[in-house]
Hints:
This protein has 288 residues and is of the alpha/beta class. The protein has a domain at 6-167 and 195-225 and 280-286: Vaccinia Virus protein VP39 (Rossmann fold, 3-Layer(aba) Sandwich). The protein contains nine helices and ten strands. β3 (91-95) and β4 form a beta hairpin. α8 runs antiparallel to α9 (256-270). The chain starts with 5 loop residues before the first helix and ends with a strand. S-adenosylmethionine (SAM) is lined by residues 2, 4, 9, 16, 44-46, 49-50, 68-70, 73, 116-118, 135-137, 140, 195.
Amino acid sequence: MSGFSAEWLRLREPTDAASRNLxxxxxxxxxxxxxxxxxxxxxxxxTGANFRILAPALGGGQRWWLLDHDPALLARAGEALRxxxxxxxxxxxxxxxxxxxxxxxxxxxxxxxxxDLNEDWERLAVANVxxxxxxxxxxxxxxxxLERLAQRCRTWRAAVLIVLSYDGSxxxxxxxxxxxxxxxxxxxxxxxxxxxxxxxxxxxxxxxxRLLERLDYRVELRPSPWTLAAQDAALxxxxxxxxxxxxxxxxxxxxxxxDVWSRHRRDLIERGHSRLSVGHWDLFASLE
Length: 288
Ligand SMILES: C[S@@+](CC[C@H](N)C(=O)[O-])C[C@H]1O[C@@H](n2cnc3c(N)ncnc32)[C@H](O)[C@@H]1O
């Protein structure tokens, strides 16, 4: 399946929320004020983190379609969204396949669809999509897929909010020998097939910006880096493990120094001496 566990998504959710580019969020909210009820398509929704951060900011009546190919993550989304709504004093009710979360000022209708974005999401019977969004997704996709996404958004005349796309930069503090070599291998791994053909990895967000500009969109691309402090040890450790494995898969020959590097970095994290910055892009585009 996707390789993204609910535990990994839960671990990164607060950091993702804190890292979003505030200028683009403000632009999104200004765009939203020009619309009445809103319909939103969330691609690669996982357990619904993108909804949880955007729905309160957008406010009012909202119809959401959450798309993912992982049935376990979508099932978890159902529970997580109910719990989230209850904590905020909203009521949660099932209306057939739709989950309705509401309070006095907000009405959110959510439908979840289990499908492979690589194959059949364009055939989905959704009408009048006004906002297409995705969080931590497009570094996985190919150039062809991204082009189809841009075309589809243009056909709908939808606004586009694509956040937290990895930009290729990883900066550890303190610096250690091997950091740069691992970063290069991780970035090479970023271009391997993640189910969509050769992935764009760090090139994805600038590529989408160019595609949308050619389709007459006004596009804003802004940084949204993760800035992890010593106390973010769990997230730093998960990243360290993932990158060590990615480097091992891509390294030209098995190399002892990778284990030495990994042990050294883990030691720094465990002793509370490690800080880490990981670059991302947020993109907002609209035709208005
Ligand atoms: C890094 S996670 C991000 C999840 C969520 N947007 C968030 O911010 O927490 C990437 C998501 O894309 C989904 N995904 C990956 N490949 C997919 C595909 N071919 N079709 C549908 N979903 C896919 C994964 O299941 C996962 O939920």
